[in-house]
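Thread title: Can someone regenerate the structure for this chain?

I was given the following input by a collaborator and told the matching structure tokens would be attached. They weren't. Posting the sequence so someone can regenerate them.
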Amino acid sequence: MIKEDQQRVSEVDLGSATFLTDVLTNHRLPEIPAAYVNMIEKGWMEHVAKN
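Best answer:
Regenerated them for you:
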């Protein structure tokens, strides 16, 4: 990103509903192990995306 763009982005008012980056960083969770992805997708299809 060029310097002018960086300044414009930093000046954008994100509002009160947006968490600061350091808050998000301090509360991040590790990525779920790949072994669980298929089970989650199957459960999603059965219980949420059912047609």
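The chain has a mean pLDDT of 91.
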